Amino acid sequence: MRIAIASGKGGTGKTTVAVNLACYLQGLGQEITLVDCDVEEPNCHFFLTPEWDFQQAHSVPVPQIDHEACQGESCLQCARECRFNALIWMVNHIMTFPELCHGCGLCSHICPEDAISETSRETGIMRCGKAQGIQLCSGSLNVREAMAPPLINRLKTFAAERETVILDAPPGTSCPAVAAIHDADFVILVAEPTPFGLHDFKLSVDVLKQLGLPFGLVINRDGMGDDSLLNYAEREGISVLARLPHSREAARAYSTGAILIDEMPEFFREYQNMTQMIQAAQKA
Amino acid sequence: MQEIVVISGKGGTGKTSVLSGLAPLGPKKVLADCDVDAADLHLIMHPSVQKRHEFISGELAHIDPDSCTECGLCREYCRFDAIDGSFRVWEQSCEGCALCYHVCPSGAVWMEPRFNGYWYVSETRFGTMVHAALLPGAENSGKLVTTVRTEAREIAQQSGIELILTDGSPGIGCPVIASLSRASLALIVAEPTLAAVSDLKRVQELTAYFGIPAGIVLNKADINESLGEEVEAFAREKGLPLFGRIPYTEGITRAQIEGLSVTEYDPDGLGASMRSIWEGIREKLETEAPSSSGARQEPTS
């Protein structure tokens, strides 16, 4: 089963839920792979601190021009047809902008002279290691790289399929978040009971309805704000999987990379409920 | 003209709360919300929309089922798995590259401009605000960020306003990169947690690469004293001003619930912190040349 943890707003507690759920399920004897899909700002490894025993660079394809074979100004099909402006005619040759390239392969396909081949460009790394019996796979996009989705997609295939795969998604509702969650069996949306939290939760709900994925809500820092998130979930018939209490102690424990279910029994019980509700939703 | 862009690396550190706390202070400004896929600034600013524009960007492939012979070439060539077994285009995956259009032997594929959301020009109690809403699951957030910022600059120029205050996205990817080009100051909102300190370092590296001056506000400062000291040491090492510290306080959430900036909600406590932060920023901006620009070109998509 693939469970994705997502939220429209950043900093609502996705990583906290992903890591604690992984530890809880591992404690039940399940084989767990946790995939940190927030490749722009990966953080799972501060909570599970594995020795990385496998590491691999991630590369994307980019065009390489054979300037001898290129017909030059009389053709320019590649520059004209590239939707991403990754190739342009510069005075006397085709120039490429690898950071704009989406790696679609159109230019090499349409070049009438076969003057465009592909080379690769490194945009990040993927690493795996085991901590507390959990297999953690984490991606890290190189700083200055704009496009996270190719690395997220690759990371997900790189991670070992196990009984349970937990996907910690990046924040937001656009392409990186969709890349992380679109093939999950169940999505846990983590939200805070605040006006910002409610607003961004509604955006996430729209995305999940479009994707047609089953989901439930985990209210994090329950008690910090107001009841509007809970009321909205009840009105819309969205199941509330858990309510993780707001506490300064939990915030402090989080800051140090602690696993909350190990230290605070009230959190352990919430993960127990969460798991039972997800299992019930899967059977239904 | 100068532009302050508020970013954080990690989400939820308080970008929007800090920005809205600065909005009532200092000179007249144009506000820009560039967190286009989870925009929240309007919940504090209550903008009255003056103009709404469609955001059309990129393309989307369409397959005409009547002309399609189901030869499978498009599926074979598409690198984004955007065409399903029934030869329908899966919108969320389609990058609009048009390779399917080129390989289709029966002319069944056509490309259309893609509608990705809206952007707005609105009035607020703190001045004009440009903001946007990307459709759920949509692409090209970087281009929408660029659209919002370009409009904010035009409005500022036309009205003789000297300062733009821009709310950025979490992360370090496409929308963040698009929000940094030509910014006068990246205001990084940090918090003293292991995760946020790591994220702060990555986003600072990004600002340094683009040659954008940066400074830090430490939010939730009393959650972890030793990590707070680490942030201070990092700021010293990189020569970044630490504009101020904001304690972990209910006041931030209460202000949000009231739909007020923290400066309006708690003028003596949080408001005093924000005024002191603003003074630090003002001094920093005075040392930077107006309209200082990053040395490098940023990717635009």
- For CATH, the homologous superfamily of the largest domain in chain B is named as P-loop containing nucleotide triphosphate hydrolases
Radius of gyration of chain B from CA coordinates: 22 Å
- Order of helices and strands of chain A, N to C? EHEEHEEHEEHEHEHEHEHHH
Q: Order of strands side by side in the largest beta sheet of chain B?
A: 3-4-5-2-6-1-7-8-9
What's the architecture of the largest domain in chain B in CATH terms? 3-Layer(aba) Sandwich
Low-confidence stretches of chain A: none
For the report, how would you describe the main beta sheet of chain A?
Answer: 9 strands, mixed
Describe the global form of chain A.
Answer: elongated
Q: Classify the secondary structure makeup of chain A into a structural class.
A: alpha/beta
CATH class identity of the largest domain in chain B? Alpha Beta
CATH topology of the largest domain in chain A: Rossmann fold
Query: How many strand elements of chain A?
Result: 11
For the report, how would you describe the main beta sheet of chain B?
9 strands, mixed
Quaternary? heterodimer
Q: With helices defined by DSSP (H or I, 4 residues minimum), what is the helix count of chain A?
A: 10
Please state the average pLDDT score of chain B: 94
Shape of chain B: elongated
- State mean pLDDT of chain A (0 to 100 scale): 96
Indicate the percent of residues in helices of chain A: 25-40%
Number of individual domains of chain A? 2
Strand content of chain A: 25-35%
